[in-house]
Amino acid sequence: KFLPSELAAVAGEKIDAIAYFQYRNVTNVRVMIYENGKVVRDQPVDVSGFSKNSWKKVTLNDPYTITGNAELMFVVRFEHGYNMNFVANTSRYTHPGKGNWVSYDGKNFTATGNGDFLITAFIKNSATAEPTGYNVFRNAEQVNTDLITTTSSVLEGEPEGTNSYRVDAVYADGVKQSYAVKATVVKASNMLAPAATFAGTATELNGELVWQAPLKGGNELTWSNKNFATRIGGTSSSAPKVWVKQEFDASDLLSFQHYKINAINAFVAEAITGATVFVLKDGVIDYSEVVESVEGVGGNKWSKFTLSTPYELATGHEYAFGVYFTHASGGHPIGVDNSEAVDVKGNSFSVTSPSSKGFNQSKPTWKTLSSGKIAGNFMLTADVEAIGEAAPVVEPKGYDLYRDGEKVASDLTTTSFSDAVQQPGTYNYTLVTKYEGKQSPALTTSVKYTMPAIYSAPVITDNSFNKETGEFNLAWSPEAAELKHYDTPTYTAGFNEEMALVYGAKFTKEELADYKGYEIKSIKFGIGAALESFKIEIINGKGERLASEEISGSDVQPVTFYSLTLSNPVAITGEEDLYLAYNATLPAKVSAMILDKGPAVDGGAMVSLSNGANWLKLGTIATDYAAYNIVIGATALPKNETANAKSINIGTSINMNDAEVITIDANDLKVGFGVEATAQTATAKKVAKKESTRPKAVGYKVYCNGEVKAQQSERTYKEVLKTNGEFDYFVTSVFENGWESPASKVVVVDNPIVQASPAPYSLKGNLGDNGTLKLSWKASNEASVLTYMNATDADMALGLTGSGTREAYAAVRFPLDSLTAYAGKKITYISFKLASVDLKTANVFVMIGEGQDIVFEQPVDVASLKIGWNVIRLNKPFEITGDTPVGFGYHVTYANGVKPHILDAGPATAPGLSDQISSSASDGSWQSLKNKFKQDYNWRITATIADADTVIASKKAARVKDAGEEAYNVYRDDKLIASNVSTTNFDVENAINGTYTVTAVAGGEESAKSNAVVFEAGLKLGDLNADGNIDASDVTALINKVLGVTEIADDICDINGDGVVNVSDVTALINIILAK
């Protein structure tokens, strides 16, 4: 982002290109220019020719002229699949509020990037010839004596003060002047070091700014306090090596002007096998020296490595010194102190191997101790000595602090400051270190302030979805309380023996005291496996049942969450403990309990073997589950507030609040998931405290998939979903001061398309004689199919091996040149063959582009899958645009030892295309079964190509029909006009205008609808006399038809579409005419 003041020097110039750094091969990229927050340029990028770790320069079709009086932001918009990460890249350091703006909707930007984004805007250069050289001018006076032939120049010895600089390009036939820039020069001799670090944090509207005192000069250069805390070492099993360094920028070294390094000291805890000291200048190794002997180095003491040639530090450069260590396997020789980390500067290390071209050619990849959650700085120091007379050590006399350019504190003598702001947002702070008669460079940082917790999100109290009608209802309350201890539902679990058990979560009277007078009106629950029946109960600390609701196992589906409205609300007295519990007999080896991913918290997982009289922690009877919480929760409302929407009816399947449950066994808790099932300590998740001063909401916003659907004052919302797919809803509160609360919990509504069998293919229509519409089509098994399979019956089964749950993406991919004939067509079905249905999860997906961006993924009901072919109809047909490669396949998880995948008998038709596999689908993870694993086969995966169709219902896999058993139904505007047609053609006599489709019927099941033929050349419904108008004369004709006086085709007379022509059609026709 650039302010008008920063653009004044280039007013009138044109921006003709924008460049960005490429790291991931995403499919859709746009470059944009925002002027005062509004988009004024938006151009797609041709992403072909992608080159990782390189710049992509995009020439603007319409160059932008800089006015100099508007704020500009140069933006790159990446659109990518969930399998891509790190698409936008930053530099190492940040100019807060300048180079680190981020947005996920193109409207709301926040300065939260970790570094400046690598984006450059180019000012148009209209030169047609190369200059012979350049001259630099200061205040109209030429600075250089000889013509400069490069495009940069370092000016030494410039006079102090603010000067104007410009560059002249010298051509054979004249000179072209650049615009002028102003620069303020301060002699380094008049400056001293700023604070060593400067950072800020915030809690709500209260901020804390903290910094460290500057380096003051003297004979030692270090960030370490030299107090030993721990030691580290390389992890290589053969040849461990570690580079460690301390780094200082030019400002840090202002107190060490005209100094040299004589020795580098390191605290070494144990013996090493080798050491090389080094100095970096501006990030490049400028000096190194091998330590001839390391005998005696180690033993928890400091070692001095004297440089054979002292190294001089030049003013104005960044330097680092350090040691490259080698040591025995398993060793940890390198000392780390207990001081506050000076991140990057004091705690950087690398395990990169030195360059084979020479040590000084090495380019280590640096990390920080803090990134591995190791505190402190490396115990390194440098012995330094002034060249000539040493400057005296000068103490700063104080610090001045600015917020967004306004001074908020003067002459601070401490190294911290507490600030408070009135509005949430990101604020930029500047710290100036003050010296007597000297200056120091300013340091900047940004702090993000958030709304106070009292401006809380509304709580979803009820939601329901009727799949038959598509009606979705949502209700919420700003006063509601959520009673829950669990986090994300993650595991299902059970026991090896049958067990009668009451299990759930405990809420203490202290936790509930703030909600005295509230009532528990609904309980959120779910089971991990089918049970014959169970109860949902609320039990007090005395073992008394305050609520008990019987649930039939046939009314609920496993791994699905439900909100159960209690027959009688339960009052919260604040004077007794309450247990929310399941009461069930759990069969042996059935994983019916649902657990979160931990860590365990107080009251989060309680069980009773005495029907609620006495309680134990779940970990007491099952140590494997000690680290987790049982998933059950409740919604409490003030006594006089009622739920405004109908609760989910038992038996209605709906994914609620990002519920994702993976069935595993106890052993999987220990291995394969990166989780240790041992006791963990954690701060208990407390029930949110009720705020007595909570501000009143004046309205609410309802969001769906990130877009605002409604702004209203009511606490209920209703919508009829007319499209298929997953929809994420959440609600925010809007307050009198204009603030918008955080989002409520997300409610996920799954409205999948009906899994009808494939439709007839390529429906076409031609106008025949006497207004006849001649329809023709192909049988569904004649539809175009994309596949690489060999036409053989033999199959090969395959599975991934390893501990725990296996995850696999199986895909085929079609290059751009193979899709020419399919441009504009749509993938309507993805089919795949399975050797086993012992799967935990299943999805189908589509990916595009050279980087294989997953842009569509659809869950499949595992229970509906079968051994053999599975045909999955897509919620939304995917269009093949013809300008990008397309791939598709299926994504499954399963236990080790299962072999669900089926391939043909080979050979691989197109290795790398017909046999792609990945365990993550991330960039660079795709492998060819043949090229990588010597498996010379093709996936049994196909895609059916046709036009789009639109029907609604469940996400189960469709039945595959045998070829040749089809009959057909013909529809106009979704009304049946012919049934059981045995041929693949049909004539519609006296055809009425409308949309015609065909379905196939086999075995009592009807397929999806074909592509549509829109007929506009026939009769209009109601135009009985065919004069092109619908008027009173048509009413007369219809009356005559009803009276039997005139013979007219029924199709054109059935105005209300009830299949019968009678007086009601006369009324309907009159209403049509009156409404015109």
Features:
1076 residues; mainly beta; Jelly Rolls; Immunoglobulin-like; 7 domains; six-stranded antiparallel β-sheet; 8 helices; 72 strands; globular
Give a verbal description of the structure:
This protein is mostly beta strands and 1076 residues long. It has seven domains: 120 residues; 170 residues, Jelly Rolls (Sandwich), CATH 2.60.120; 55 residues, Immunoglobulins (Immunoglobulin-like), CATH 2.60.40.10; 178 residues; 55 residues; 167 residues, Jelly Rolls, CATH 2.60.120; 44 residues, no CATH class. The chain contains eight helices and 72 strands. The chain has a six-stranded antiparallel β-sheet with strand order 21-20-23-18-25-26, with no helix packed on it. A six-stranded antiparallel β-sheet has the order 40-39-42-37-44-45. A six-stranded antiparallel β-sheet has the order 60-59-62-57-64-65. A hairpin with a 2-residue loop joins β2 and β3. It is globular. About 6% of the residues have low confidence.
